[in-house]
Design a protein that fits this description.
The complex is a heterodimer of chains A (about 140) and B (about 350).
Chain A: H1 4-15, E1 22-23, E2 30-34, H2 39-47, E3 54-63, E4 66-74, E5 78-86, E6 91-93, H3 103-113, E7 116-118
Parallel strand pairs in A: 2-5, 6-7
Antiparallel strand pairs in A: 1-2, 3-4, 4-5
Chain B: E1 3-8, E2 20-26, E3 29-36, H1 44-47, H2 53-61, H3 68-83, H4 89-117, H5 121-142, E4 151-152, E5 155-156, H6 162-188, H7 190-196, H8 204-210, H9 214-218, H10 226-229, H11 250-273, E6 291-299, E7 302-310, E8 316-322, H12 325-330, H13 332-336, H14 344-349, H15 355-359
Antiparallel strand pairs in B: 1-2, 2-3, 4-5, 6-7, 7-8
C-alpha cells in the first residue's frame, strides 16, 4: 500500500520541485499538478515503485485558454498527474520512448487536440482518416446547441 | 526469400470488426505487421457533449455490443460521484448481477470465436449455445439482449421477482454443469492445446510496458482486478478469487477466462441470494455540479476507465473513455512478427479484441 506523503515527496524529488501536493476533488483519485515538462520524470519515478502497475490512459482537454493533459496511473490505487499547456502551440515531451504504452494515447491527443509530443515517432493517424486535412477536431471545442 | 504483403481488413472474413492489418509474409512466417484502427470511430466522446447526462446513458451503451452494461455502469458511477449520491443497496447488487452475467456471455463468446479460429467449430457452437442462455436472462430482465438500458443515473430500472430469480438460479446451474466441458477442453483436448499453447505469448515486460489489462494481463501473471482493487457497485461485500495465470499464451488466456466464468457464476449467486430489499434508484438532479471524476471498473476485457468533467450544466464538458482493448491492440503488431501465417487467426482471436470499444 503506497503512502500519500511518501508519494508526494517522491514526485517532488523526481521533478525537482519544492513540494507536490495532491489536490482533492477527483473522486478516489490522488491528483497532482506538475509543470509541463515534468511528466516523464514523474512517471519514471512512479514506475520505480513496486506498486506500479500501468499507465491507464492520458486525457487531453481544452479548459479555457489552456490544454490540460491528465496522466492516469494505476498503483494499486488511482494517481493522476495534471499538466497544463498553453493552447497556442501546445507541446509536451513524449513518454513513448520510456513507456511504449503511452504512444497511442499521445497520438490520439496529437490528432484530436493538436498537441505536439516531442519525440513521438511519426505514424499513420490513429482514429482519423489519412485524408483529414482540417484542423484537429477537438482543438476548438464548439458549444453545441 | 520473397516477401508478400497481405492486406487484411478493414473488411475481411478473418475479422469480426473493422481493423486494418498489413502483413508481410516471407514463406510461412510473418516478418512484419502494422495495425491501423479508427474505422468505427464514431466520435462518441464529443457526442456526449451534445447530450444531457441522462441521454448519454443510452449513447454510452452503444459503444459496445458485448459489454454495453459495464460502459453504462462506469458512466453512471462517474456522474453519481459528481452528484454526491449513493445508489440503493438493491441497485448496487443488481448492477453486480448484470456485470457478471455480461462477463459470462462475453467470455463464452470469446471461447466460441477462438474455437472457430482454430477450426474447432463444435466449441464455437457449444459456447454460443450457452451464451444464449445468458442473453435470454438479459432479455427477460431488461427487454434487450445487447443494449439493456438497465442503468439510470441514481440506480437501475430493472428488478427481480421470484420468477426471475428461479430462472437465473436454474440457468446458473445449467452453465455450471456445462462449464466442465470447457474445463475438459483446456486440460484434455490435445489438438486444442497444440493450437493454443505457446502461441501468441505475451511477456510480462510487454504487458507492463503497454499497460495491458484484464484477463490478457492476468494470464501473464499480473494480479490486477478492479472489482477487488477498487470495489464498486456491490463488489465490496462479495467474495471471489482473482484468477491469475503465468504462461501468457492463448491457452493461458482461455484457461483464465473459463475459471473466471466459474467465479462469475458464484458472484451472480451471491448477488441474488443476498439481494437487499428496498428502492431501485434515488432521484438524481439533471444539472451536475462543477467538478471532475475518474472511475474505474473491471469490464470483461479488463480495466475500463472514464474521466468526466462537469461545468455545472446538464451536459458533460469532457468525457474520456479508455477501453481495455486499446492497450492490447498496441501489442498486436509486435506479437505477429515471427508468427507462422497459419497461426494468425489464433493470435488475433486470442486477444479478445473489441474494435468498437477501442475506436469509440
Amino acid at each position: 500500500m503506497i503512502k500519500r506523503k511518501a508519494l508526494q515527496e517522491l514526485l517532488a524529488t523526481a521533478c525537482g520541485l519544492e513540494r507536490v501536493a495532491f489536490e482533492p476533488g477527483m473522486g478516489q483519485e490522488w491528483v497532482a499538478e506538475l509543470p509541463a515538462e515534468a511528466a516523464p520524470c514523474a512517471i519514471e519515478a512512479l514506475r520505480t515503485l513496486p506498486a506500479w502497475r500501468h499507465l491507464s490512459t492520458i486525457t487531453g482537454q481544452v479548459v479555457g485558454d489552456a490544454i490540460q493533459l491528465l496522466y492516469h496511473c494505476w498503483l494499486g490505487r488511482g494517481v493522476t498527474l495534471r499538466v497544463t499547456l498553453p493552447r497556442e502551440g501546445a507541446q509536451a515531451p513524449s513518454l513513448a520512448a520510456r513507456l511504449p504504452g503511452a504512444a497511442w494515447y499521445e497520438r490520439e491527443i496529437q490528432e484530436l487536440l493538436g498537441v505536439a509530443f516531442r519525440g513521438l515517432p511519426e505514424g499513420p493517424p490513429l482514429l482519423l482518416s489519412e485524408t483529414w486535412d482540417a484542423p484537429p477536431p477537438l482543438a476548438d471545442p464548439k458549444e453545441h446547441p | 526469400m520473397t516477401t508478400v504483403r497481405l492486406p487484411i481488413g478493414p473488411q475481411h472474413p478473418l475479422l469480426k470488426e473493422p481493423l486494418s492489418l498489413q502483413i508481410d509474409v516471407a514463406g510461412e512466417q510473418i516478418s512484419e505487421a502494422t495495425v491501423r484502427i479508427g474505422y468505427v470511430h464514431r466520435g462518441i466522446e464529443e457526442l456526449t457533449r451534445c447530450r444531457s447526462y441522462v441521454q448519454n446513458v443510452h449513447l454510452i451503451e452503444r459503444i459496445c455490443g458485448i459489454c454495453s452494461h459495464i460502459h453504462s455502469t462506469t458512466y453512471c458511477q462517474a456522474v453519481e460521484a459528481l452528484l454526491g449520491i449513493e445508489i440503493p443497496p438493491r441497485a448496487a447488487a443488481l448492477r453486480v448481477l448484470l456485470c457478471e452475467l455480461e462477463r459470462i456471455h462475453s467470455h463464452l463468446l470469446w471461447i466460441g470465436v477462438l474455437g472457430e479460429a482454430i477450426g474447432f467449430t463444435t466449441i464455437f457452437m457449444y459456447a454460443w449455445r450457452d451464451r444464449e442462455l445468458v442473453l435470454d436472462i438479459m432479455e427477460r430482465l431488461s427487454g434487450g439482449r445487447v443494449s439493456h438500458a438497465a442503468n439510470i443515473i441514481g440506480g437501475v430500472r430493472v428488478d427481480l421477482g421470484a420468477e426471475e430469480i428461479a430462472l437465473i438460479e436454474q440457468t446458473l446451474d445449467t452453465l455450471e454443469t456445462r462449464l466442465s466441458l470447457y474445463r475438459d477442453l483446456m486440460v484434455h483436448d490435445r489438438p486444442f492445446r497444440l493450437r493454443t499453447q505457446g502461441i501468441g505469448r505475451l511477456s510480462l515486460e510487454t504487458v507492463q510496458a503497454l499497460g495491458i489489462v484484464g484477463p490478457t494481463a492476468r494470464a501473464t501473471g499480473v494480479d490486477v482486478d478492479m472489482r477487488r482493487d477498487a470495489p464498486y457497485a456491490g463488489y465490496g461485500g462479495l467474495s471471489f478469487r482473482v484468477i491469475v495465470g503465468s504462461e501468457g499464451d492463448v491457452w493461458s488466456r482461455a484457461d483464465v477466462r473459463q475459471q473466471e466464468i466459474a467465479q462469475s457464476l458464484s458472484l451472480c449467486r451471491q448477488a441474488i441470494r443476498a439481494l437487499p430489499e428496498g428502492d431501485l434508484a434515488v432521484r438524481a438532479p439533471a444539472r451536475v455540479p462543477e467538478g471532475e471524476v475518474v472511475t474505474r471498473t473491471e469490464a470483461p476485457r479488463g480495466e475500463l476507465i472514464y474521466y468526466v468533467r462537469s461545468d455545472g450544466s446538464d451536459r458533460p464538458a469532457r468525457l474520456k473513455i479508455r477501453t481495455p482493448t486499446l492497450p492490447a491492440l498496441m501489442s498486436l503488431a509486435g506479437l505477429l512478427r515471427g508468427v507462422q501465417a497459419a497461426d494468425l487467426p489464433v493470435v488475433i482471436a486470442g486477444f479478445d479484441l473489441c474494435i468498437a470499444c477501442a475506436d469509440r
